[in-house]
Amino acid sequence: MTSACGLIVNPVAGVGGEVALAGSDGDRVQRLALSKGAVPRASLKAGRAVGAILARSPETVFLTGGGVLGEDVCRREGAGHRVLVPAPQSTSAEDTRRLAQALRDEGAELILFVGGDGTARDVCAVIGEDIPVLGVPAGVKMHSGVFAITPEHAGPLVATVFAGHRAVERAEVVDIDEDARRAGRLSARLYGHVLVPVAPEAVQRGKAGVSPGDPSSVDGIAAEVAGRWEPGVPCLLGPGTTVQRIAERLGLSSSLLGVDVVLDGVLTGSDLDATALHDAVGAGRFQVLVSPVGGQGMVLGRGNQQIDAALLSRLDPADLLIACPPRKLAQFAGRGLLIDAPSDALNRRFRGMRRVIVGHREDALLRVA
After folding, report:
1. Eight-state DSSP code of residue 60
2. Which residues, by range, are in coiled-coil regions (predicted)?
3. Does residue 210 lie within any of the structural domains?
């Protein structure tokens, strides 16, 4: 039986990530990102998802938009498809809404959209809770609980939806004010709800905050992190409040939402893009310090895309330092941590049982999947 899957690709989703622009919403930011050498990668992630779907359901026909809105991906992957709206001369949020409306009118069984929280907002504004949707993560932040963990997770999940073996549930669409984020302030807003497949093994949870807990736990983590930094080896500090608090305990004024560099206990670079990070670490060994995203458990692929594929391919998995206070870690009990690297090969490189720093001389053993 042929299944009709809607496909919306936001071709500029995530374009601001590697160049440290803290998002990609708006024409001005997209032009700036491209001027800084950013390479759009949403189409590649869309191809990974479409390929995974075809591997499970080769008869799937994709209803999509012309050119960069989805047609190009379908042609590249050899997928059966039908174009509902023509290719745009230049892309905007309106293209997403227009294609979503066409998919709704055409009776798509499920809409697969490739983008971030901004794309989710546009889909939600048109579709609401009328048709199940699933996001392929291609943005920078992705706080909403509507995205597959990785593009590859979309394949078996979509196949079970079409087979009628998967229930759906309401999920929140949340986005933040990117201008406020660039200024170091987090201001999130609920924009509505959509229906997503019930699949905790394949769909990420929404981002959730957590109270700081005992300050001494961060003190202990900071002491342990300092002890694991190797002399003469730079360490990249990932974004987020946990890493910032660790840095503060070590006398470092790190950026809240950027990627910084520390060498021998001294902050040598702040809020750097991928190119600057490559320059900072040179050709030798380096370490990376990250903390899981609250509620989600993501350690790579959400808000830290400046640590790009080339850097991750050089990073020894043993040099990926994961730190998490016990209260925050309790959110991931029974679930483990997650990774969404720029390729499935890199995902496999960093998966497995990993030690998580939870205090001074204290580790917890969690699976990264």
Report:
1. -
2. none
3. no
Residues 254 and 360 in one domain: yes
Tell me how far apart the alpha carbons of residues 277 and 282 are, in angstroms, rounded to a whole number: 8
What is the number of H-type helices and E-type strands within the chain? 13, 16
Residue 115 resides in a domain: yes
CB-based contacts of 250: which residues, under 8 Å, 6+ apart?
A: 222, 225, 226, 265
Do 126 and 97 meet the contact criterion of CB atoms below 8 Å apart? yes
- Maximum separation of any 2 CA atoms in the chain, in Å: 62
Question: Do 218 and 226 meet the contact criterion of CB atoms below 8 Å apart?
Answer: no
In a domain, 206, yes or no: no
Please give the model's pTM, rounded to 2 decimal places: 0.93
| Closest among 83, 140, 107, 103 to 258, alpha carbons compared | 140
Together in a domain, 88 and 126: yes
Q: Is the model's pLDDT at 48 over the cut of 70?
A: yes
Query: How far is the C-alpha of 90 from the C-alpha of 317, rounded, in Å?
Result: 40
Same domain for 337 and 270, yes or no, is yes
Q: Six-digit token pair at 209? A: 């905050």
Q: Containing domain of residue 134, as a range?
A: 3-197
Exposed, middle or buried, 282 (CB in 10 Å: 0-12/13-18/19+)?
exposed
DSSP 261-323: EEETTEEEESS--HHHHHHHHTTS--EEEE-PPTTT-EEESSS-TTS-HHHHHHS-GGGEEEE
* Residues 75 and 115 placed together within one structural domain of the fold: yes
CA distances from 337 to 23, 135, 174 (A): 23, 19, 21
pLDDT digits (tens, 9 = 90+) for 154-208: 999 998 999 888 899 999 999 986 555 555 566 678 999 999 999 999 999 998 8
Q: Are 259 and 237 in contact (CB under 8 A)?
A: yes
Take residue 243 and report the two structure tokens written for it.
Answer: 């890493």
Tokens 């496999």 appear where? Answer: 348
Give yes or no: residues 19 and 55 share one domain: yes
> Tokens 């706080």 sit at which residue?
143
Is there a single domain that holds both residue 288 and residue 328?
yes
